[in-house]
């Protein structure tokens, strides 16, 4: 009989982590801080202030508001909003401890998330369902777990995984609540095992386990060999759903060449249409999930920043949006989700800016921090502070204090 999958994952998580991985993780930390900074004045921020007096916990409500959070393509989830609140939840930890917790959190979410498949993504919000595993792994790392403790705690965390996509049909804060719930629940799963609770190590593949309940064709757990899966995570340069990014990117390339002209014909993968075929968005959230609006933003000479998806922008771009048509190209769908691609007016991109194949430079992440901090009402000095603490610093307590001030 083969050993439980979580036992193997537990061994992976218990491996030591090197300096190069920590250096990479610092960029993802800064990227998440940028997302939090940009959401400070959102409706979700009011809820965040009410639920907690801790900066890292308030930030669970802010990291995915702007739709600029990082993404893993084949797992179809956004790790950062879950990873970093959990990794920073112990202000007494050193920076290396927090970064290691973050790297292990990415690993757990992606390893299992990549095995869940299209049926899961059609109904479940993977950032939420896999988020409990990520928060559990991060907390276990902070507690100094060995492989057996990881396996037990992940079994308990996965036993209560949840989060349905239905909230997409309403203009609500359920998506933010999912992150808060995942972080809190995953942390509790690890803490309970730390104090002696036990958990089912075959929870993934068991007859009444996660795979049986949530997917119709489970794959194998994702692995990076001797490396770590954080290396595969994409940055999001545009303030919209990731499914719109290939079309935005292609349209921007055409604009750069002076060849972006109406009518605008967009061909892309099926999930992009399933989530983002919205010719007439009625609010900011719908605009961020609208291929038509995304292309109109670029055609209107804008840069796909948060201000380009407001009610004012929705009204201003209506004439351009009416000139955008969208359809599936089966050939692009076949390459998805390993490649997020699109074709605009015949110009095709196989991979999108921010993916490992087309990486953004660290300076671009800093620029994102500057842009979103300004949108969130923070000064240039706060940008410098965030960059210094995330990229060079060794003071988790100072990071936590900064988050508390930002979300006050």
Structural notes for this entry:
The chain is mainly alpha-helical. It folds into 2 domains: 5-232, Orthogonal Bundle (2-methylcitrate dehydratase PrpD); 242-349, 2-methylcitrate dehydratase PrpD (60s Ribosomal Protein L30, Chain: A, 2-Layer Sandwich), CATH 3.30.1330.120. The chain has 22 helices and 4 strands. It has helices at residues 5-13, 19-38, 43-51, 55-58, 80-87, 95-113, 117-123, 126-129, 131-143, 147-158, 174-194, 210-214, 245-256, 270-276, 284-288, 291-299, 311-316, 318-321, 330-335, 362-375, 380-392, 396-406; strands at residues 264-268, 324-328, 342-344, 347-349. The chain has a 4-stranded mixed β-sheet. Helix 9 (131-143) runs parallel beside helix 11 (174-194) and helix 13 (245-256) packs parallel to helix 16 (291-299). The longest helix is centred in the middle third of the chain and has 21 residues, at 174-194. It is globular and about 65 Å long. The chain starts with a helix and ends with a helix. The mean pLDDT is 97.
Strand order of the largest sheet: 2-1-3-4
Number of helical stretches of at least 4 residues: 22
Order of helices and strands: HHHHHHHHHHHHHEHHHHHEHEEHHH
| CA-CA gap between termini | 53 Å
Q: What general outline do the C-alpha atoms trace?
A: globular
Category by helix and strand content = mainly alpha
The CATH topology of the largest domain turns out to be: 2-methylcitrate dehydratase PrpD
Question: Could you give the count of β-strands?
Answer: 4
Oligomer: single chain
**Can you give the mean pLDDT?**
97
Percentage of residues assigned to helices: 40-55%
Low-confidence stretches: none
What is the number of domains?
2
